[in-house]
Fold:
Amino acid sequence: MKKVFITTPIYYVNARPHIGHAYTTIACDTWARYQRLQGREVKFLTGTDEHGDKIVKAAAAEGKTPAAYCDEISGAFKNTWAKLGLTPDDFIRTTEGRHKKVVQQILQKIYDAGDIYAGEYSGKYCFGCERYLTDKELNDKGECEIHLTVPQVISEKNYFFRMQKYLPIWKDMLLKNRSYVEPQGYCNEVLGTIDELIKNGEDLSISRPKTRLEWGIEIPFDTDYVTYVWFDALINYVTAIGYPSTGSGQVDFDSFNDWWSVSHHMIAKDILKPHGVYWPTMLIAMGLPVYKRLSVHGYWLGFADQKMSKSLGNAKDPVELAGKIGNDALRFFLMREMNFGSDARFSEEIMVNRLNANLANDLGNLVQRTLSMLKKYECGPNPDSAAHASAAGIDASLKTMHADYQKYFENFEFHNAIEAVSVVIRSLNKVVDDYKPWSLAKENMADCALLLNTLFRAISAVLIYLRPVLPEKTEALLGLLQVTSASALPQSLGEIGFPAQKLDTWPMLFARMELDKPA
Ligand code: ME8
Structure:
């Protein structure tokens, strides 16, 4: 069976989850469900990034120890994903023993190979980014462009990873296979950053002296130092799939390689440099292949088009929002509204308009009126009904949807995959409007029954395609109607199966919402 491995960033525990974190995690959950629907074995990983200065500061601000504070916020992330109905296969914390062991093993391996050395470093450090910034990364006030704070000038002895040795190798690999980083605009950005780093000639600082920071993974060859958070955090992706540890027991290289060879990372553009530049060079130094793909999305923008973030205080709580509109509606909005790769605006008005148009009007209306008429005219669902004249056209649209949907999902174009289904939903509403079953019921009941049963099959097919995006609503309705399909993604109405039944009641899919008081 084909495998796929999908990861979210591991989130910092210095604040609670917001819509931005929810977007990436929901996108990975949606993609994982799409892959499972295709019969693939999926490992979906998320987790929390718990070491470093800013975590210590956040814990101190709340009068807690870093460990107690990390437990609390990491728990909040885990609970949020459970409340939103997300189903990761693993949740990794960088403070776990399994992770520390792997980080230390990798540090020792790279050190033994001569690719880590001690040196002096002085630079402008942004605690929000947990890394030194170049002047190019500052705005005209000298602030970090992401956190809008002036970085602190720091000079200290550090250990360095010989990133310069691996940058040209990675650049060459990327030029030969640009699909490592998608969409392509971000691949260009990575190539630009590589060139800039090669020009600067700087290596990557990978340690912090314990005199300044104790909350980290101890460097195995110098216990006065802890590991720099990014060098620690990035390694989570290989820890979680059993990076072959020689420390104890059986070493299962095959299992690790099986997952690593199909690894897909998803991030927003804020952390492109660590994922697009540091991590691949680390992997090459470790003797591992580079990930299969890095998929990069844009930002959710809040008021005044500023990036939603905890530090700017303009972020929405996803659980609160889902409490108002439902988990599925939240998923649908986030997945459909953002063009993967570009920024998207978030406002209640944009959300209500999108949900009313696509869910209440298009999908909700189609399902509601078709089921209501089947019930009213007592003509189905009847699995023995022959096909209506509209069936050939519907079959053709299912085939087109099937091809588009797969192409877009494989390419992480969630908005386009969903739109491919919406096109069919709108065409089915047009079939209803054109054939007018309410008129047919008076003139030609037999034809009305054919039409409504054909529409029932078509709706069933559409709901199957929407399973990754609307898991709760589709499972409830498909389960109630006892719909089956001959293949995972049906390409013709004939593939849909269901028992003869008399409709009684069914759950309302999506009601219209009004601004300020969403349903
Ligand atoms: O960077 N729009 O953690 P983090 C879209 N620990 N996505 C957003 C967003 C927004 N406004 N705000 C946050 C870290 N995100 C590191 C990662 S990985 C080895 C270590 C999402 O808590 C998006 O996925 O700052 C972004 O990349 C991530 O949260 C940053 O999370």
User: Anything to note?
Assistant: The first strand starts at residue 3 and ends at 7. Residues 9-12, 20-21, 23-24, 49, 233-234, 236, 267-268, 270-271, 299-300, 307-309 surround ME8 (CB under 6 Å).
